[in-house]
Amino acid sequence: MQVESRARRCWVFAAGLLGTFACAQQSASRIGEGAFIAAGWIDATATLDESTTPVYEGDAPMSFEFLKDMRRGDALTLSKFSLGAHSGTHVDAPMHFVRDGASIDRVPLEPLIGPARVIEIPDSVQSIDAAELNRHGWRNAERVIFRTRSSVRGWMRSPTFHRDFAYVAPDAAQLLADAGVLLVGIDYISAEQFGAPAPITHRILLGKGIPIVEGLALEKVFAGDYDLVVLPMKVAGHEGAPARAIMRKLAR
Ligand SMILES: [Zn+2]
Known about the structure:
By secondary structure, the chain is an alpha/beta fold. It is built from 6 helices and 12 strands.
């Protein structure tokens, strides 16, 4: 679409000599600025698949259905998806646990795109509390992502829901929120302790307008600094949505 409209603009400019020059100038600078190549990017998204994607206990079941299928002789292939908003890799918007909080379509791009630090939490640790957090260098990070036992054990590719996933404890969430972190991410479908009496971690982060990315696929992503792009589906007025997340190691 963009290319098309630029071509049209150039065509109009080409009517005059001066216009032709302006057009060439514009194309050259656009190519230089716009170079966004796929090389080096890691797909940190869990594949949505009924047979392998874990569903949080009690959440809506996931189903992907073909309404029409060319392999069965239909004239086209057409699908219907049915799944919870918090399926696979997804983003929690403030509205998830804050009554008048922003819905997913109103979460700004700023927290969702930019540098992120991946912190590796040992397999033995289930509770990422303030003490555990402070064992790692996180202080100057704009976005903090935890790679935990869930990645070590491949849990985002296992249909069994594991209750003993590693979670962000409220005191660690408070430290992150107070430090002005823009985004917090984790590699299982919730950042909150399973069965926690109250969703305090969510309340602390979302209460400060900090979106939470859950269900990241971090098997191939290790400790270090990355560029992160995580883009949730833009669903009007709802509290979360599945997302595509990609990461690229920063040379440091
Ligand atoms: Zn969620």
